[in-house]
Amino acid sequence: MSITTLTAISPIDGRYRNKVDKLGDYFSEFGLINYRVLVEMEYFIALCELPLPQLKDFEQKCFCDLRNVYKNFDSDDARRIKDIEKVTNHDVKAVEYFIKEKFDELKLEEYKEFIHFGLTSQDINNTATPYSFKDAVEKVYYPVLNDLIEKLKSLADEWSSIPMLARTHGQPASPTRLGKEIEVFIERLEKQIEQLKSIPYSAKFGGATGNFNAHHVAYPDIDWNQFGNHFVNNILKLNRSCPTTQIEHYDNIAAAFDAMKRINTILIDLARDFWTYISMNYFKQKIKKGEIGSSAMPHKVNPIDFENAEGNFGIANAIYEHLSVKLPISRLQRDLTDSTVLRNIGVPVAHTIIAFKSLLKGLGKVIVNEDAINNDLKENWAVVAEAIQTILRREGYPKPYETLLDLTRTGDKITKESIYKFIDNLNLSNEVKNELKNITPHNYTGV
C-alpha cells in the first residue's frame, strides 16, 4: 500500500497533514537529512577558514557551490542518501558518502577526506536536530501561537465591559468581566513564552567522547574547544554544551519541552472554560451552511474545535513529558535510546500546532450571548452580599458577615427585593443605605 494522507497510520500525516505540512521541512526524514548535509558542509567550510594546513589553498569561491548542495537539496538527493544507507546501514555515514560524491562532481576530490573530519555521528545529529527544532519553533510554532494570542487580545478588548457572573467551585461568585477572564490567559501565556524563549538551543560538538580526541591528535596546536564554540555558537547560531559525553546533555531541550507543555496546559484550561461557557449558553457558535453537528440530532452545534484542541494538547503533552524525562538520561558516555526518541520531537509539535489551529477556529466561531449572561446575573443577587458586608465592616456595623450569613443561607432565593428589604432594616444612615442599594450584580465587577 502506498503511503498517502488516506493510508498514513498517524493522523498528523493523514487527516491533519494539511494543518502541519510546514513541519515536514524540519522534522521529516527529508528534513533531518537536509540539516545533516547543512552541518557537514558548514563544518568543512569552517575547517577551510581556520584554516587547516591541507585546506589553506581551498578556493573560497567554491563555498557557494558547497552551500548550494544543502540550499538546493531535493527529494532526489534524499533518495540517493537513502540508497547509500541501504549499503552502509548508517545514516550519517551515508550523508558523508553523498557529500563526497558531490565533491567529485565539483572536481574537489583532493579535499573530500576532510568531510566529517574527526567527527562522530552525534556531532552531526546533535547539531542538526537542535538547528531544525529552532527553525521549526521560530518559523512555524511561534507564528501560530502569536496568531492565537492576538485573537485572544482582540476578544479581551471586545468583551472588556461585559459583566459576567463568576463561578468558583462551580457556584455563583463575585461578578467579573468577560474580557478580564480572557486577559488572565493572555498574561499566563506571555509569561511562559518569555520563559521558553530564554532557553538556549543547545548542541554537542566534540568528537567521539566530547574531548576532540581525533582532532587534537592530528593537530595538537589548534584550540579545538575554541573552534567548536565558534562553529556552533557563531556559525550555526546554537549554544555549544561543554564538556559533554558523546551526546548532548538534552537538559535544555527537555526544559523547552516542559515549557511547551505548560503552554499547552494553559490552553487546555482555556479550551475547557470555553466549552463550559458554551454549555451554559454564554456563547453561541456561528453556523456554517452544510455542516452537521450530530448524525442523529439535527439541532446540535457541538463545540468540536475546543474538544479537538484539548485532545491534541493532551497527546502532545504526553509525548513532551516522555521526551523531557527520557532524553537527559543516557548510560555512561552514551546509549542509543536518545537517537530513536529524537526522531519523534516533531510529533508533539505537530499535535500542538493542530490544537492551536483548532482553538483559533473555535474562537472565531463564538458569539457572546449577552442575554444569557445578563439573566444569570439577575438571577443571582446573592453575590452582592460580599459587597454589603464589606461596607458594613467599613461602617463598624456589629458582626456584618454573620448578619449577611443569616440572609443568604436560608435556602430561600435572594432577589433584588429581598436585598432591598434587608438593607432597609439595617441600622444605617440613608446615605449608606442608598450606597448599598446602588450595588448590583452588573456593576459589582471590581477594577
Q: Care to describe what's here?
A:
The relative contact order is 0.09. The mean pLDDT is 94. The chain has a two-stranded antiparallel ribbon. Strands 3-4 form a two-stranded parallel sheet. It has a two-stranded antiparallel sheet with strand order 5-6. It has three domains: 20-117, Fumarase/aspartase (N-terminal domain) (Fumarase C, Chain B, domain 1); 122-207 and 246-370, Up-down Bundle (Fumarase C, Chain A, domain 2), CATH 1.20.200; 380-437, Fumarase/aspartase (C-terminal domain) (Ribonucleotide Reductase Protein R1, domain 1). Strand 1 (163-168) and strand 2 form a beta hairpin. It has helices spanning 17-20, 24-27, 29-49, 63-71, 75-88, 91-105, 121-158, 178-197, 213-218, 224-235, 251-279, 304-326, 337-342, 346-363, 370-378, 385-394, 400-408, 416-424, 430-437, and strands at 163-168, 171-177, 202-203, 239-240, 283-285, 366-368. The longest helix has 38 residues, at 121-158. With 447 residues, the protein is mainly α.
Key phrases:
single chain; 447 residues; mainly alpha; Fumarase C, Chain B, domain 1; Fumarase C, Chain A, domain 2; Ribonucleotide Reductase Protein R1, domain 1; two-stranded parallel ribbon; 6 strands; elongated
How many angstroms does the end-to-end distance come to?
62 Å
Average of per-residue pLDDT values: 94
- Beta strand %: 5-15%
How would you classify the quaternary structure?
Answer: single chain
Radius of gyration: 31 Å
Number of helices: 19
Shape designation = elongated
Unreliable sequence segments: none
